[in-house]
Amino acid sequence: xxxxxxxxxxxxxxxxxxxxHLVGALENWVKLQDEYQNFHLIADYHALTTDLDSNSIYQNxxxxxxxxxxxxxxxxxxxxxxxxxxxxxxxxxLIFSMLIxxxxxxxxxxxxxxxxxxxxxxVTYGHLGYPVLQAADILLxxxxxxxxxxxxxxHIEITREIARRFNQQYGNLFPEPEPLLTKFARLPGLDGxxxxxxxxxxxxLMSDDSQTIKNKLRGAVxxxxxxxxxxxxxxxxxxxxxxxxxxxxxxxxxxEEGCRSGALGCVECKLKCSEKIISYLSPIQEKRKYFENNPxxxxxxxxxxxxxxxxxxxxxxxxxxxLMKFG
Length: 327
Ligand code: TRP
What we know:
By secondary structure, this protein is mainly alpha-helical. The protein has helices spanning 19-32, 44-47, 57-71, 88-96, 102-106, 109-117, 125-128, 130-140, 153-170, 210-218, 239-247, 252-261, 266-293, 295-324; strands at 6-11, 37-42, 80-82, 145-148, 178-181. The two termini are 32 Å apart. It is built from 14 helices and 5 strands. The protein folds into 2 domains: 6-185 and 295-323, HUPs (Rossmann fold, 3-Layer(aba) Sandwich); 208-288, Tyrosyl-Transfer RNA Synthetase (Orthogonal Bundle), CATH 1.10.240.10. Helix content is 54%, strand content 7%. A 3-stranded parallel sheet has the order 1-2-3. A two-stranded parallel sheet has the order 4-5. The structure holds tryptophan. The site of tryptophan has 14 residues, from strand 1, helix 8 and strand 4.
């Protein structure tokens, strides 16, 4: 078991997860759990960078954990834990903050995008340091691979720079982690936006019931040139077609032909699509119900994950201290 390479994956707890998370991240995490030793981090401190109201963070963390379990992550194989419960993240973050310049962090394109998208006027010191904390998350567990979307690649690059800098200065301890990019990384939002995201309000949640899914799909944006059944459509620009590709692969060819010729109308196409999504989610939602009804089991999983994560974190920090001649 110790020979398996290590993966550190993480998400910020912003509430219940949506299909974009499932397709773009979780399914990949589930696939990786046998070949690698995985650590799954709930980045609750990182959540504070964009929302200081911490009332919901705990509840969001639990909801996210339940979605992880429902998607098939196995706590026997991979510890799942909250960043805030492992104090070593803070300690390593502080040490790492001396190994990178503020100018380097100001150049981080992910931060620039976030400032623009969220209209942030004044960036906090902690937000600037977001990737430094992420580097601590990864390197505390000596993660060698990090499954992420494109937007996180700059953070992995910063992690590599910090690892290199530490190793040169104090001695070889940390790996230089590599990103693992997912193939089906993006699912478009219901509004036609490239990405499904909570802030855009264009999501289908993993936990949405059948009626909600049907309603949401009914309102989805389609090819504006296809106004009524009979009009030829362009599946390549239609998000519903992308959903068919993912959730209804057996029928995509028919759908494509029907859409192009006009024989298939959007109403029917959307209905078919919602049915496929509903049945795709059905076993996941069944598992979700089980965990919702057994909160003690969920808390036990968290406690156990935090215990295991803490053991590794303490070990790494004692190596850091010894290389730095601290105590
Ligand atoms: N920054 C990541 C995101 O927003 C979340 C995260 C925090 C993370 N720490 C991590 C991801 C460590 C991978 C590894 O998606």
